[in-house]
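User: Run a structure prediction on this.
Assistant: Running it now.
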Amino acid sequence: MKSDQKFLYRLLCSIILTVIAAGSFYYAWNCFIQVKLSPDTLIGHDILIIVMSVYAFVFCLSFLKMRGFSIGADRKINTVASQVIALLTTDIIEIMVMMAVIRRSDSFGLIISDILILFLVQSVIIPLVSVIMIEIYRKVFPPLSLVEIYGNDKNDIYIKMGNVRYKYFIDERLHYQSENVKEAISEHDAVLISDVPVSERDRLLQYCFDIGKRVYFTPEIADIIVKYTEELKLFDTPLYLSRNDGISKTELFIKRLFDLVFSSIGLAVLSPVFLIVALAIKLEDGGPVFFRQERCTIGGRRFMIIKFRSMIVGAEKDGRPHPAGKHDDRITKVGRIIRTIHVDELPQIINIIKGDMSIVGPRPERVEHVLKYTAELPEFTLRNKVKSGLTGYAQVYGKYNTTALDKLKLDLAYITNYSLLLDLKIIIETVKILFRKENSEGFTEEKAAEIHDADINGSAGNK
């Protein structure tokens, strides 16, 4: 019942937002654009209705694709960022439509400037209205009450879900072998099945399906591979095909061309930023501007990654990894700023042009970390089936301190579901999360020390 009510509320919100967008376009056209056009470039009422219909259609499509209509489902900042990007997409397409309709080059500048003003106004009004809608949603629809059914392997998924307070409230946790599991499931809105043995997980999933209970569960690596299989309809029994042949040669060519074109454009456009950051780093302590470090890419091949230096000179004098903690005093003043907005990663555009990296792909890990993670999790090498990237699934949906297993799962989801459209989606999502605080957090001091100590012990054992 709640699901139906949420759907109706979001549908109503979507209609209101569409009316606001289309209405603002109509108002801008009648009051600003049309009165400035010469008589021979004016368009009739019937054609205007068609243009407005196209505008409303593109607006709805963009908002659906960018999750701009997901009122209450995502963080406010994510929803607002999605809406601004979707509005920009809609207005750019509308500019092209208007140019095609009017066909007067001397009017193009007017159309572009006025639609740009419209975009700026919409980018204020629509997010403001949406924030009000989200607040109403959260008051009308309280967070779901969840029971976590956990296994013997420990993870912190219940903490992560519990931190999303506007959506989830985990008020009970039970081991999967507890006697009252079924009773607890029936008493809550939904169930979180966390790292339970596969056979027991399947039994719980079937029970929840039988009673119509919503389920969240953590996938195994095999689940991710199976998810992106194709169904064959050759026999009288379901049969699924998992090709496991990676990205095709044609896709690799297109991906490489995409990387070269956009990284070259990015390097040219961002050159002023490079200059400003380089000067700031040099003026602060006189040390080198760039920091180079050995990382792993496709097939385990090693290369030197290039970044803006964000830590003091000699931050790792002993040659061993010292992951940055949340309050690491080795991070410089300039470094703290550029790390927060991820500007320190920009020089990797050079790595992309050289062919060491791609724009989108699994993040390249340090050699020491790859050895450590692989020793604990042999499947970690599966992420090396594609070239490492400047951004990726794990960067968009994870955090700096996301665990190795969770990174692997996210990267496998990308590898098994690759497409150029997916790359574009990840790039857009990356823009949306650039200023999200938790994505730039370092490891906790305890976790940083743990990785450092593990590397020392591992190195000692190899001598």
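The CA atoms of residues 95 and 112 lie 6 Å apart.
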